[in-house]
Amino acid sequence: MKTECIGIIGLGYVGLPLMANLNRSFDVKGYDIDARKIANLMSSVDLTGSIDNENLKKLKTKVFDQIEELKDCSVFIVTVPTPIDSNFNPDLNALKLACQKLSKLLKINDLVVFESTVYPGTTEEICVPLLEESGLSYNVDFSVGYSPERVNPGDKNQTVDKIVKIVSASNPIALQKVKSIYLKVTTAGIHEAAEIKIAEAAKLIENVQRDVNIALINEITKTLNQIGVDIHETLNAAATKWNFQKFVPGLVGGHCIGVDPYYLTNKAQKMGVHAELVLASRRINEGMPKYFVDRILRYSQLNRKNAKINSVLLMGFTFKENCPDIRNTKMHAVYEEFCALNAVVDIVDPICDPNDALKHYGVDVLKCVPNKMYDVVFCGVSHDIFMSGDFKRINKFLVKDGIVFDLKSILPNGKNIIRV
Amino acid sequence: MKTECIGIIGLGYVGLPLMANLNRSFDVKGYDIDARKIANLMSSVDLTGSIDNENLKKLKTKVFDQIEELKDCSVFIVTVPTPIDSNFNPDLNALKLACQKLSKLLKINDLVVFESTVYPGTTEEICVPLLEESGLSYNVDFSVGYSPERVNPGDKNQTVDKIVKIVSASNPIALQKVKSIYLKVTTAGIHEAAEIKIAEAAKLIENVQRDVNIALINEITKTLNQIGVDIHETLNAAATKWNFQKFVPGLVGGHCIGVDPYYLTNKAQKMGVHAELVLASRRINEGMPKYFVDRILRYSQLNRKNAKINSVLLMGFTFKENCPDIRNTKMHAVYEEFCALNAVVDIVDPICDPNDALKHYGVDVLKCVPNKMYDVVFCGVSHDIFMSGDFKRINKFLVKDGIVFDLKSILPNGKNIIRV
Questions:
Q1: Taking all residues of chain B, what is their mean pLDDT, rounded to a whole number?
Q2: For chain B, percent helix, then strand, then coil, each to nearest 5?
Q3: Are residues B28 and B168 in the same domain?
Q4: B93-105 pLDDT tens trace
Q5: Whether residue A256 lies in the annotated active site
Q6: B237–A199: do the CB atoms touch at under 8 Å?
Q7: Count of domains in chain A?
């Protein structure tokens, strides 16, 4: 199989581990539009922490910031981000650009496989026409496939080699090729979808289901708080039923669960369907930063002599525990909520890359807690490191009647601790 | 333990199996307001099919239609229905009546345990005051407990002796007594909730979660149908992800999942919280009968020479497969949809009690398919019996270009079969 050269377009949380994995069985080349990222990878630095050093060294001579370097590949796998824009609409620009660039390289018998999350129909209705700009004929000269990525950033158990891959393609011969490639990627097996749009839809509904379930628990949390019933004890009791799924209240950030539902609702809207549960779930989850800050204000009003919150420390800035990814992190929304209340807000997160935070959000993220006292400590991300050392000694940086908001219930019990 | 006599108030799907179970370890007596039901039980007839003949015979001398017969009991377990009224509001009449009747019997040191599903606060705010009409003092002379029923009608695996029971009580001594009783009921163990309202909330959110998840799949079904993507193939693909929960599209009837969410939303509304996801889910699930009938009309318009649907056969009338329970069955809503279209509608269901259907819905339910031809066969309940014998030979009772709507995908493939 070493004869086939596979080109990976986009070397982020999805593309890089996939490339490392494919490198065991195939010739591979990787391309990323971000020259700084390529320079880092060539120096064996992976800021995403997605692959280990050994794999990184094996790839350092195979990554490029010019797509032309991949022109001798016959299979291309596109793993570029598909985010949303500021109006919560699908932003397919990276995907479209990848297709346009690929159309310049495409040769007879080439296969282009997409892994980026998209709404049903995107591959055939948007990507294929762009690839046809090559002058080649779809399903005659070139074929496409779709195999949704299921990467779970920061999860060391459900890695790409251990998850079932859904595969689909535009014709049976292409499907055989897609299958033969992904069978080398995973030991968990593959699932053939009969149509590309089924594979596209499957990925979306996986993440939609998580988003809606978290939104439901957030809605129940707000309801039970109002009634005066503890949500965590209620969840613990309900979880003793054989078919109860224990989701927990919280913030939904990141590039998947907080984003993919908009791909479905956007397509639905175009087709005249109002996906009300999915939209309501997004609205509820997007509203949680404000809800949590409101709860802190109420607590302060009821329990403190001087209710005013002048200073806040946010513990954690990434969208997920033990993972440097800050895309669409809702801790930034919490930051903005407190800033809007005229509080001075510091952020501490030893896992987050401060340059990344400064570049994308214009905020300073500290590695250690500064020598200051805070009215509120908002612990929003359950990094393992927060459960050890200095971070645990919260009283050291909390004023006497200060408030600890412990979203993830990771801190030791104590006075003035609000749990969700 | 045989010294304590336990009285069961309400001998339906919950009370009867519980009584049979308790009868192994305790003296028990059962009361039901329905004299016909008591007469049946005394003749060893259980129309709900909840317990076997052997257990039935053991109970026949212990059931009464006069609650006074239970006056020597010291523990009462209330298992009356808590349905909704025609405005979708909680109907606590049976529960209140049970409390009022119990207040006439209540003695010093008695314990009253509730199993009926209620919104958080019901036991303490509604039931206790009614019990106090006895003149006895709450938590001094008498105590209460709450242990939500988790009966799954028709499920022979998750029976009351094999499920974890949540227990709670109004004081520690009562809790000990509640625990000692339920430890004899189940081998799966008990879960102590710190407060009664936590146990009440836990039961509600279990069923709310199911309702919302089914509503989500119904919403996705409608969306994907519009986009032209097969829902079942999409679900099969998504289900290959390790954390995907495979719910399927369909009707939500019965006395639990289609009812309990209203208990939560009603209480939420009173507290000023709009539980929008839960309410939207109810609306979506309640709208499915109309949606399915609309799909059949469209199919008929597109595929048949004479589109008019004159005759319809509904296969299945109970709310669930292999279970005679017709409470809140949505097959009746399907029936009404077709009647409103001026179709003649026959119903066949060998599992359903025809007297029950006539009494509660005023409809005739047949045991066998009549010797007629139908434009539409709507197969809505997956009774095992529908997968055998005459029921499978659908062409025998379908006109030439007739339509089969196979909600549960239980029929063999063929022409003119619509699957959801």
A1: 94
A2: 40, 15, 45
A3: yes
A4: 999 999 999 999 9
A5: yes
A6: yes
A7: 3
